[in-house]
Amino acid sequence: MENILEIKNLRKNFKDFSLKDVSFFLPRGFIMGFIGPNGAGKSTTIKLIMNLLKKDSGEIKVFGLDNIKNEIEIKDRIGFVFDENLFYEELTALEIKKIIKPLYKRWDEDSFLKYIKDFNLPLNKKIKDFSKGMKMKLSLSVALSHNAEMLIMDEPTSGLDPIVRSELLDILSYIIQDENKGVLFSTHITSDLEKIADYITFINNGEILFSVEKDIIMDNYGMVKGDKEILREDIKKEFVGIKYSSFGFEGLVKDKKVIKNALKEKIIIEKPSLDDIMLYYLRREIHA
């Protein structure tokens, strides 16, 4: 299986933050959810992929090409959607198109006009008069109009209403039917990723905690509930994190089969959400 994105031992040091040997890969034909709290390193990683920041060490390959030596070719084949509008707001969508079109070798005028129509966007209205959802749709229209093989999306659904978010997820699901494409989707809204992502990469404090197929996470991880007295020290070691209350405990385990065999009928095991998994990784022990 060919990887559309490969990152190996990526490091970037700032005064008060560092990326520490970040490594993960995304195969063609799949959507990767990139999750983590604010300040974890998601946007920094994306900026390094796009060569908007200079890395200290490590390797980044996109389409099998070095992202610095082949920057122009790579960016011609990438669609990029930020959480903020990057277009000059005094211009119209039509004027934006005229500026951007010459930058891409494979610009498809028919695709651009189709997305504008499908998204119900006005061509001659100034960007400053667009809603946040309309600005995101314009960014997506531009990103999809030059036959991009890879989409990189940095918090594109932040602040959008559920209807617009749902439309975006439908578009991504349609795009990825072309198994030659790939999507790196950074977001805080993990419920969106539960619907469409194939892989989940979790970064915290500049380090990758895991990067694995979403189905493996959802099949193996478990939310465990029971009485506190059954939590022997050897049992606690199986937990990612535990929340205590006057009624007992609730905790996250990586392998629910192991804990089920150890505690038998004394516990209740439920399926966790990605939000649950993030919470318990970030706050290992919680007292209610």
Short note summarizing the structure:
With 288 residues, the protein is α/β, with parallel strands linked by helices. It has eleven helices and 15 strands.
Identify the notable features of this structure and list them briefly:
alpha/beta, P-loop_NTPase, six-stranded mixed sheet, five-stranded mixed sheet, Rossmann fold, 288 residues, ATP hydrolysis activity, ATP-binding
Structure description:
With 288 residues, this protein is an alpha/beta fold. The chain folds into two domains: 3-217, Rossmann fold; 221-287, no CATH class. Helix content is 33%, strand content 30%. It has eleven helices and 15 strands. The strands form three sheets. The protein has a six-stranded mixed β-sheet, with helices on both faces. Strands 14-11-13-12-15 form a five-stranded mixed β-sheet. It has a four-stranded antiparallel β-sheet with strand order 2-1-4-5, covered by helices on one side. α6 links the parallel β7 and β8. The model has no long low-confidence stretch (mean pLDDT 90). Residues 5-230 form the ABC transporter domain. GO terms for molecular function: ATP binding; ATP hydrolysis activity. It comes from Caloramator quimbayensis.
